[in-house]
Amino acid sequence: MSGTTAAYATETSARASDQLPGETVDAVVIGGGAAGLNGALMLARSRRAVVVIDSGSPRNAPADGVHGLLGLDGTPPAELLQRGRDEVRRYGGLVVTGEVASAAPAPASAAPAPAPAEGDPRFRVTLTDGRTLSARRLLVATGLRDVLPDVRGLAEHWGHGVVHCPYCHGWEVRDEPIGVLAVGPASVHHALLFRQLTDDLVYFTRGTGLDDETRARFAARGIRVVDAPVGEVAATGDGGIAGVRLSDGQLVARRVLAVATTMWARTEGLEELGLATQDLPGGMGRHFVTGMAGTTDVPGVWVAGNATDPSAQVGASAAAGALAGAHMNADLVAADTDAALAATEHGLTRV
After folding, report:
1. What is the longest distance spanned by two Cα atoms in the chain?
2. Residue 89's pLDDT band (cuts 50, 70, 90)
């Protein structure tokens, strides 16, 4: 475990967790990353009762800092998320440490009295420890899981010597000898992006194949192509990367490896919602399908962040969460107004 990851694990285990409320809340946010916390912030600032369920396993936990985020560039991920939790709580939102075992539309028999009006759904969220809560709306911000190619020695360096995003980590590895481990067609573009950051780039095809035109383009940019099979990633004595050892024993010295991961939206516990998913091009993973502001085909459910936009950096994910949260509040406002009107027409008094 890296020092950054260990520090985050300690912070996660030590941080406070709010108590689950007994009453139905306006919104439950599943996921406490940038998208989930910013969505919750918008809802809490709109005086909505909102609960964030945070498993404490963000995608960027191994990274030393968040980059490309204006005004906060270089902030450690754990610090940024702690600031976000504090801000949500400042406006009355709750942040609960836990994992969702199931989230599903609540059966009519479980709805509180009086029954919710049509168009104002209810959901039951159950945590893995058995705790439950009821919500009018859901924001899914579960993020995604990066899956690395099966190369011996690769995973141990993930988030440090092994990187995936030139915009997230590129400046930090500039001018280093970089190797790109190909996983498919997407790796060609990947290599050209990393070539912008170093003059010393080696492309390991790993059996993916390159056409003559691509080889010519690589040659024009001074990118060396290695077609020999890759055996393993070799480490230095201090835990860094020494290079890529080929199946014939030859070592190609590299300090940094770039690889396009397979990105799978985290869907565990969400199956009963029936949210639509879609494969990414080139077999690069799967994500939730959303419309404007993170809307889905399931009334009352929104999705924001990497779970629906795998390429979004922290800033884009946070912005998507904020937009979804505002959209959710507007939807709740319409439902509240419909309920108030119905109560007036039936001679009831709304509190």
Report:
1. 84
2. very high
State pTM to two decimals: 0.91
Q: What is the pLDDT of residue 119?
A: 77
From the CA atom positions of the chain, what is the Rg in Å?
A: 23
Residues 306, 10, 146: CA angle, nearest 5 degrees: 25
Which of 23-27, 107-111, 338-342, 344-348 has the least mean pLDDT? 107-111
Share of the chain above pLDDT 90, in %: 84
Q: pLDDT tens digits, residue range 240-291?
A: 999 999 999 999 999 999 999 999 999 999 999 999 999 999 889 999 999 9
At residue 114 the predicted structure's pLDDT band, cuts being 50, 70 and 90, is: low
Say how far apart CA 11 and CA 81 lie, in whole Å.
11
- What gap in Å lies between CA 160 and CA 156, rounded to an integer? 9
Q: What is the residue extent of each domain of the chain?
A: 3-145+262-345, 149-258
User: What architecture is domain 149-258?
Assistant: 3-Layer(bba) Sandwich (3.50)
User: Cβ(334)–Cβ(326) under 8 Å?
Assistant: no
- Token duo for residue 153: 């020695």
Closest by CA to 123, choosing from 102, 147, 105, 142, is 105
Asked whether 143 and 285 are in contact (CB, 8 A), the reply is no
Provide CB contacts within 8 A for 89, sequence distance 6+. 18, 95
Q: Are 81 and 37 in contact (CB under 8 A)?
A: yes
CA angle, 3 then 57 then 272, to 5°: 165
Domain 3-145+262-345 and domain 149-258, same fold? Reply is yes
Name the one residue in this structure whose structure tokens are 């990851």. Answer: 5
Q: Does domain 3-145+262-345 have CATH number 3.50.50.60?
A: yes
What are the phi and psi torsion angles at 102 (to 5°)?
-160, 145
* Cβ–Cβ under 8 Å, residues 242 and 251: yes
